[in-house]
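Most newcomers find our protein records easier to grasp once they have seen one. To make this concrete, we reproduce a full record directly below:

===
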Amino acid sequence: MVTTHEQTRAGFLNIALEKNKVGDPYVKNALAFKAMVANTKGPDEFLDMPEIRPFVLTASGLSEKSMKYLDEGDQTAAIKELIENFLKPSGSDYIDETIYRYLLIKGDAVGGTMRNRIGALGEERLIRAILSNMNVQGIEYDWMANIQGSFPWAHKSCDDTEIEKNMKALHWKNSKGDRVLGFNLNVPTVKKNVDICLFECDMAEYDKGKIVKKPEKALMLGELKGGIAHSGATAINAGKVYFTKDPLAINYTQWIAFAKYSYKQLKWAIVEKPFAREAYVSGKLEDSWKELESEISESFNDFSKDYYVVFE
């Protein structure tokens, strides 16, 4: 399967839009901070403004996780370092400097959130496609809400707007019996978190996902995220063989892709990487030698400019 240019373009645009949504609260925080400190005369005043302390602590480079290991004195020391080393040298732009540093630190948080969000977007699109097909065919279904602890089931509603954002599992019946499609389950057999898992069971037997302990009930395991991890898919292929007891029950396309990319990595590690390293080192040595030769020539010229030098 080849992703078309239009699909790739739409995917990148959706990710860009989502990234702006994730980053928007941090921008709003920065605007609020700027309004709160607009009348300050200098960065030293930040120390006497407890209402902006969390913002300034982030600007100083401290993460929320690090706060658990630092007392008030340590945190104040970090703010003072920020003020002395970065805010005061920036002069009248100390407010903007604080904002830039805050947004720079929060950029890491946005990156982490987006890595998770991109996977979630793929899952939501799959669920919506399944629901759309069920609605068109008039298939009744039940869905499990992703509410930690309770995971309640609800029957198909007339208004299913955005339920894909909060769905943990989907149940329906076909001519062969009950089916439950679960999302993001840790499957013991493959020892890996699996994006989509199809089981032959009803809602009660699914038991909030504990069905994973009954491998004979599994019909399908699948990786969903864009840029599929071959290690994950390989583990799933192994799981399929285990479930079916059939060594031929594998995804040959995936195995071929795995072999192809493994070959490329192996070739790079064994053949290409040493040559690249040697070329890099040789280039660095050559550059260093030319630099040394130039310095020696300049020193010699300076030393001999008032003398005649004769080589015998």
